Amino acid sequence: MPIPRRTARRAAAAAAALAVVLPLSACGGGSGGGGAADASGKVQGSITFQTWNLRANFKPYFTGLIAEFEKKYPGTEVKWIDQPAEGYADKLSADAAGGTLPDVVNVSPDLLAPLAKAGLALDLDKAAAQYEKEYLPGAWAGHRIPGMEGTYAFPWYLNTGPLFYNKRLFEEAGLDAERPPTTYDELFEQSLRIADESKGRIATLANIPTIEDFGRYGVPLMNEEGTAFTFNDAKGVELLTRYKELYEAKALDPQALTATSESAGKKFLTQSVAMNPGSALDLEKFRKDAPALYENIGITEQISSTGKDNMYVMGVMVNARTERAPAAVAFAHFVTDARHQMEFAKQVAIFPSTAGSLDDPYFTKEDGTDGTRVRIAAAKSLKTAVNYTPVLMSDQMKTELRNAVARALQGKESPEEALDNAVKACDRLLRQS
Amino acid sequence: MTTPTASPTATAGSTAERRAPKSPPPGRRPRDGRSRIRRHLPTSPWLFAAPGLLVAGAFSLYPFLSTVANSFTDRRTLLPGRFVGLDNYREMLGDEMFWIGLRNSTLYVLGVVPALVVLPLLLALLVEKQIPGISFFRSAFYTPVVASIVVVGLIWVWLLDERGLVNAVLEAVGVGRVGFLSDQWLLLLSAMAVTVWKGLGYYMIIYLAALANVPRELHEAASVDGAGAVRRFLAVTLPAVRSTVVLVGALSSVAAFKVFSEVYLMAGPDGGPAGEDTTLVMLVQRTGTGLSGRVGYASAISVVVFVVTVALMLLVLRADRKEGA
Given this model, what pLDDT does residue A423 score? Predict the structure, then answer.
């Protein structure tokens, strides 16, 4: 039967209208509040667990962990999904928007914030408050979102690391390689010296300052209410001004304006920059991939004006819309409990966030090796370390800051102007979030 | 004159058939197979087209309409949008990064399209000759086309790095190091060079197909008239491949305006120093993705990209019509 032209037109118009209306109603969980899934009840059923680039190196650990959980709770089944590091936030956002977010998800606090605001993260203060005392207070608090009530993820592993430096490059510049810089003044002074001695061929740093650097320099990053950024204060301007001096003297790598932490790490590996932050994981990489560098490697503490190092925090959140809340909560706790975090820490250079774990002899007893030395120093610094990255700072806001820093270093704007503009842009994005 | 109620079994092609009712009178069944086919004929094209229409609707039309709809909302990745009218478009006008993106995408078209129209044609003229070993060169020129853009990008980043091969050579000959990847304009030029290098082989193949259809007799006649190689190219080859030149111009200008990968790989996710090398599509990606992505605003930029690419196509086709007239 032919389709009358009028009917066809109406159908097309209806389809177009539907297409227009559907996106407006699609997904998006509404705002705030955390989920209301009930975590009481029998631990059973099938759940999904997503990690962040861990399968390649730790498959046996996780398969063992899952088998142990399934044995402890008969009737449960855990399906493990691992996502690559690249584009992890995009994958999470696609899953969250599409309603396919796994039941238990590995997140960092800045990824957690938008999920919690969209009501996709379970409030553990309501659903699992009994576990709070098992974790370091700072780590538990690290998963609270300013402006919201509740805690939205179990603390998992922590990471921090020293500053690595190339002794040979320090010596060639006439510096004492056994006395690396310990303050910002010394860092800037020695960086200029290295650039001067090498006629601009050797830079000391390969990255422009990030929000963590501003934090370590003692710049207040956000107000207490979490409603506005404050890194444009006098101290922030001072830090940027000093970095500008480094950039102009080529003590900061010319490609720093477009560098990522990976590309900066590569420059340190190829010995074209003299210093780079890293973690205990990197020592093994230097030994394998850059033996010439490894022979000259120097290890020193992070430079901080606040007396507190920067640390990275990982968490495990429970999807507020899970249909198996008891199993999901039980599994998220199981993964992050003291025994399993300790086991995981012994396989990889990370640190547990559970109370008392850092007092284990594994983190306190020297055996004379570099690896142990780094581990012990890092564990010690973690007791006071801070996650300087504000949890409300999104990727777009970080880009605004990086662009502002680049404009200041190039001389297109004064450091003050650049930071004022960055704060304005970040505050606007914060209001829109 | 045959009455409208003439028999449905009238001879095919007759006036009677053309005026016959499309279905038999109520209560009467068609008497042969041909009538049955005729009865279903009007629906058949729709049935055949249905799978294609469904796929196009689901993966092209719906996303397109949905993007247009989103552009009038403040939708975010995880939060539903409210209708905000033209706010996103108004914001765009005052957004410095949008203008930077528009500038870079336009510069990309201006820098890349002439090279991609002319160079592959010259290359095709060189490799169209049937001489021993020519297939090696054809394959060599085509290799960048099939290589992954990520691999290509990384290789060029290594080559153009401050301590890369190109700078080592420049330093050895006394020019000194050049900041291909740290200077805003050199970075954009480097990305354009990679786009041209990667696209040469693709358009060369299109030109080769066109050149194969240029009548040999015309060349022979021109030769007899004393025309040299350049004259023959201008008087015979170029007019014969004119429509292909237009096609290449249209394809390459749309591709150049939508450039993403080359600039992203060479300039980094921020789009070069202070984001000065950001293109419009990079801006869409940066603004609209991630957990805090501003889907509404990114959709508005996408709509602008769509309008500009359609305008580019129309411009090229119009220029072709004028020239052909």
Answer: 97
Determine the structural domain holding residue B304 and report its residue range: 69-322
Residue given tokens 């080359």 in the structure block: B262
Q: Is the pLDDT of residue B58 over 60?
A: yes
For residue B264, the tally of other CB atoms under 10 A from its CB is 23
To probe the interface with A, which of B292, B297, B299 has the most A CB atoms within 10 Å? B292
Cβ <8 Å between A258 and B42: no
ipTM over 0.95: no
Q: Is B274–A92 a contact, with Cβ atoms under 8 angstroms apart?
A: no
Return d(Cα A179, Cα B45) in angstroms, integer. Answer: 82
Q: Above 70 in pLDDT, residue B318?
A: yes
- Residues with Cβ within 8 Å of residue A255, at least 6 apart in sequence: A206, A263, A267, B161, B162, B179, B181, B182
Query: Closest Cα partner for B285 from B267, B297, B298?
Result: B298
Burial of A389 (0-12, 13-18, 19+ CB in 10 A): buried
Binning chain B into helix, strand and coil, the percentages to the nearest 5 are: 70, 0, 30
Of the residues A381, A399, A422, which one is the last residue of a structural domain? A381
Q: Are residues A154 and A119 in the same domain?
A: yes
Contact call for residues A134 and A337 (beta carbons, < 8 A): yes
Closest CA to A381 of A373, A392, A389: A373
Residue B294 covered by a domain: yes
Residue B4 lies in a domain: no
d(CA A38, CA A326): 7
SS3 at position A154: strand
Q: How far apart are CA B290 and CA B295, in angstroms?
A: 10
Residue A151, strand partner residues: A144
The rounded distance, in Å, linking the Cα atoms of B79 and A113 is: 13
Is residue B37 very low, low, confident or very high in pLDDT (cuts 50, 70, 90)?
low
Alpha-carbon distances, residue A131 vs A34, A124, A328, A330, A353 (angstroms): 18, 9, 14, 10, 13
Q: How far is B188 from chain A (nearest CA, A)?
A: 13
CA separation for the pair B270, A407 (Å, rounded): 13
Which residue range is the domain that position A86 belongs to?
A: 45-160+311-381
Report the CATH number at residue B180: 1.10.3720.10
SS3 (DSSP) at B195 = helix
Contact B43 A93 (CB under 8 A): no
- The pLDDT of residue A28 is above 60: no
Whole-number pLDDT of residue B324: 59
What residue in B sits closest to A408 (Cα-Cα)?
B274
Query: CA B306, CA B289: separation in Å to the nearest integer?
Result: 19
Strand partners, A164: A276, A299
Segment A224-253 mean pLDDT: 94
The pTM of the full predicted model, rounded to 2 decimals, is 0.81
Distance (Å) from the C-alpha of residue B12 to the closest C-alpha of chain A?
Answer: 20
| Residues in chain A closer than 8 A to B78 (CB atoms) | 27-29, 93, 96-97, 114-115, 117-118, 120
Contact A30 B46 (CB under 8 A): no
Q: How many degrees, rounded to 5, is the angle at CA A124 between CA A123 and CA A128? A: 140
DSSP A372-386: HHHHHHHHHHHTT-B
List the end-to-end C-alpha distance of chain A, in Å, as a whole number: 52
Residue A15 is assigned to a structural domain of this protein:
no
